[in-house]
Specification:
Number of strands: 9
Distance between the termini: 9 Å
Number of domains: 1
Strand content: 15-25%
Structural class: alpha+beta
Helix content: 10-25%
Length: about 240
C-alpha cells in the first residue's frame, strides 16, 4: 500500500468537544489514533488447506472488569471507506452480543466467527472454504470459525491479506485482523478486529481491538499479551483493498 492510499484517521475522546481535543493534543496528551481506509473485498478463492483448531477460552478475563477498559475513543466514521465503515458499524453494534438467528453463537469460542461476520459485512463473499451455516455455527467451515484455520486460509491467499508482525504496527490499520498465540505454539488462539491505531508522543504505537469471547471493545493488544497472557504473541492481517 502506497502513502497515497493511506488515509489518516483521527479518534477523539468521547467526553470532550472537538475544540477541547485539539487543545489537549497540542499540549501532548499522546493520543492520536491513525488508520487507513480499505476497499470492499472481492470473493476469496477456494482451497483445501484449512483445518480446524481449538481456540483458547478467556474465561478469567470475563471475571475481571479491568480486563476490558474503555479507551474513551470514538471512531471518525468520515475517514473510513464504505466497506470498512460497514465492517466497524457491525462490530460496534454486536461486540457484546451473545446470540444471532443468522450466525448463532459459539460458546467460549466465538471470536473467529465474529471476525468472519465483520468481514462479511465489509463485503467479503463466501467461498468453498470460508462460509457459514445459517443458525448453526458449529457446522460452519473451519476457516470461518477457527483462528488457526483462518490463518492458514489467508496464508494461501496473499491477494486478500498480508501478515504483519507486532514490530510492524505502523502498517496496521482500522479494520485489520489481529490474532494471538498465547503459548507461542505456532497456532492461533484468539482473533479480533482492529478498532484503533494510536500513535503516542514517545513514538510507540498502541493497537486496540474488539471481539467476542470475551466481549471486547477497544482493548489494548499490549494489555492482552502482557497482563492477561504474559508472553503471548500478536500478529496482524493487513486486509487488502
Amino acid at each position: 500500500m502506497t502513502d497515497a492510499d493511506r488515509r489518516r484517521m483521527f479518534r477523539r475522546r468521547r467526553t470532550l468537544a472537538v475544540a477541547a481535543v485539539v487543545t489537549v493534543l497540542a499540549v501532548g496528551c499522546g493520543f492520536v489514533a491513525i488508520g487507513w481506509a480499505s476497499a470492499t473485498q472481492g470473493a476469496p478463492a477456494p482451497t483445501d488447506t484449512a483445518r480446524d483448531s481449538v481456540e483458547v477460552q478467556e474465561a478469567a478475563a470475563a471475571d475481571d472488569a479491568s480486563a476490558a477498559p474503555d479507551s474513551g475513543l470514538e471512531l471518525d466514521w468520515a475517514s473510513l471507506s464504505p466497506g470498512v465503515s460497514a465492517q466497524m458499524e457491525y462490530v460496534q453494534q454486536h461486540w457484546d452480543s451473545t446470540s444471532s438467528d443468522e450466525f448463532g453463537f459459539l460458546d467460549e469460542n466465538d471470536c473467529m466467527a465474529f471476525t468472519s461476520q465483520s468481514l462479511l459485512a465489509r463485503g467479503w463473499v463466501e467461498d468453498d472454504e470460508w462460509w457459514y451455516a445459517v443458525g448453526d455455527p458449529y457446522s460452519s467451515s473451519p476457516a470461518w470459525r477457527s483462528s488457526t484455520a483462518f490463518m492458514e486460509y489467508l496464508e494461501a491467499r496473499p491477494e486478500l491479506a498480508t501478515m504483519l508482525t507486532d514490530d510492524q504496527r505502523d502498517q496496521v490499520k482500522v479494520g485489520d485482523v489481529v490474532q494471538f498465540d498465547w503459548d507461542d505454539s505456532g497456532d492461533r488462539d484468539h482473533t479480533g478486529i482492529v478498532t484503533a491505531v494510536v500513535a503516542n508522543d514517545d513514538g510507540t504505537i498502541d493497537i486496540l481491538y474488539a471481539g467476542h469471547t470475551d466481549a471486547t471493545w477497544d482493548r489494548s493488544v499490549d494489555y492482552s499479551i502482557t497482563e492477561m497472557h504474559p508472553g503471548g504473541v500478536a500478529t496482524y492481517w493487513s486486509i487488502a483493498g
